[in-house]
Design brief:
Elements: H1 30-35, H2 47-54, E1 59-63, E2 69-70, E3 85-89, E4 93-102, E5 115-122, E6 127-132, E7 145-152, E8 158-164
Antiparallel strand pairs: 1-2, 1-3, 4-5, 4-7, 5-6, 7-8
The structure holds zinc ion.
């Protein structure tokens, strides 16, 4: 027996169970959450990466052809252009490459001032933009060893951040 046509979208096929990143209905308020100015724009290339973050997994894109890793998530390898790429969990270890301390910003970004925007080098190779938390500003230095952490925002959205390695939180 055929199912009746419906405005509902098909279930998600990725690891996400649809709680945050995917809307199952056209009027789902979660779409507003993803559309907020301080939220990523999730698309077909990045939704699996962000879904894993919601489950506290930081992934990198790894290439089955040249074996190199990359970020941001995309359906090909930026080193050899192979489309044989898959997301694999990263170790969560990184070093600080560069940073800036943001002292002024407009809403909604002003709630966390001052905050540290950084580029970090993951142990797996890719360099990613992130935020450094739980680190005195005077302790920031190039090469600082970092560990990934997962910040739960008030609305339940999980954001990958980095903190100094070996520091109890
Ligand atoms: Zn490659």
């Amino acid at each position: 027996m055929r199912r009746e046509a419906s405005r509902e979208r098909p279930p998600c096929l990725c690891a996400c169970d649809g709680r945050v990143l995917h809307s199952q209905r056209d009027d789902d308020p979660r779409e507003e959450l993803m559309g907020a100015p301080d939220r990523p724009t999730s698309d077909s290339d990045s939704e699996a990466w962000w879904a894993a973050v919601q489950d506290h997994t930081l992934n990198v894109n790894t290439c089955g052809s040249c074996r190199r890793n990359s970020l941001y998530p995309r359906p090909f390898c930026p080193h050899c252009w192979s489309e044989d790429v898959t997301l694999v969990p990263a170790s969560g270890h990184a070093t600080l490459y560069t940073w800036t301390v943001v002292h002024q910003n407009a809403a909604p970004f002003d709630a966390r001032l001052p905050y540290v925007v950084a580029m970090v080098d993951l142990a797996e190779g890719p360099r990613m933009m992130t935020v450094i938390e739980n680190c005195p500003l005077d302790d920031l230095q190039a090469g600082l060893e970092l560990t990934v952490d997962f910040r739960h925002d008030d609305d339940g959205f999980v954001v990958p951040v980095f903190t100094p390695a070996g520091v109890d939180r």
